[in-house]
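Annex B, item 7. Sequence and structure tokens for protein A, then protein B.
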Amino acid sequence: MIVDDDALLRRSLAFNLEKSGYRTSNAASAEDSLGIAHRDPPDLVLLDIGLTGMDGLDALRHFKDQLGVPVIFVTARRRELDEVLGLELGADDYVTKPFDLDILLARIKVVLRRSEPNSIPLLSVSPLQVGDLTLDPIAHTVDIQGKPVELSPREFDLLHTFALKPRSVISVNDLLAGVWGAEFIGQPQVVYVHIRWLREKIEENPNTPRRILTIRGVGYKLEPQET
């Protein structure tokens, strides 16, 4: 996962990492990255320190304590204090911008190799139970009252995002950032369309939804339904 507020750097890094055989996800903020990581746990995080909102040092604690994944700081800050602080808090390595891509790729391989025995994330590996709905992130399955529901990958990711925070209202912008990613270029209507498709599959009556509720002017939330 690439976490950086520089869109050009994110695109360039993602392009080169995917050329080298890695699957990437990305986020422009620490808050978005943590939401994505809970849904799709990464094997490694490339994390900028100087983020707006929650900074990289705070995000590092969440990645380490909650997910147990290795983190490499990729930052323009060159102060020795940042490096010492980052490594003391548990960062696995530290690379300053501008960096040589080959050096970064070599460090990624070293950190991944070193972390292999502990590479299973701590969260998002157990099925989520939300009322009569069961979502299994590993098997990528959804059951309602024990009956399987077939969802597209995007519909699954959308429902997974809701299931991680049942009864919490999630805005359209947060859904775009968390499900479609920071690099998504398009209209927010894509969220409305996928919500409609999702309702058609999990609601008894999609025209009067009881599970995925619209909170007008705010966003959507998943309301648990008991059997």
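Protein B:
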Amino acid sequence: MRYYPIHLDVRDRKCLVVGGGSVGTRKVIGLLECGAKVSVISPVATEKLNEMVAAGTIILKKRPYRPSDLQGMFLVIGATDDDVLNRQIGNDAESLNLLCNIADRPEVCNFILPSIVARGDLVITVSTSGKSPALAKRLRQKLENQFGEEYNDFLQLMGAIRKKLLSQAHAPEAHKQLFNQLIDSGIVEMIRDDKKDEINSLLLKILGKGYQYEALI
């Protein structure tokens, strides 16, 4: 395996996307969803990007890329249809020790973007280390069918239970057995089927009094 797996926090960090086409637009949306401050450099831009500019969501400079555009950036994504330009962006970013992804060119990136299944705070990523995006997409589609929105609700419940246990001075090591019981209990299916009474009975059995599903999520 060549790549070091990591989930990167880009909240409030300056990120640059070079390229205003459909690929660049997708990259911008992905960064915004993670809280980044996004700038775009491109002589042309999609309607969606122009709407974001009008809404004050992104900064757009309608002109060709300049190496100086990288100054002050945390991360850059090259998403133009010009391979020579994309490679220049990669080289410029490398000289500044910036995180850089070039769309569909893993050999000139220092990180690649995996296929993603997101269910709220549950994020499942699939990577083939750039060898087969088609396989990564197929595996992502299988995972999307396997992990529904109920997993987001389950994760919120688990987080609320953990927070409450910690507030009561429970030792974190003592939580493992409780959480394993919850994971193995079938509670995810109960959440999916909206069986609140059964969920509350299960929480009472495993955790004792004071843990009501409706109050926790």
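Comment on protein B: The mean pLDDT is 93.
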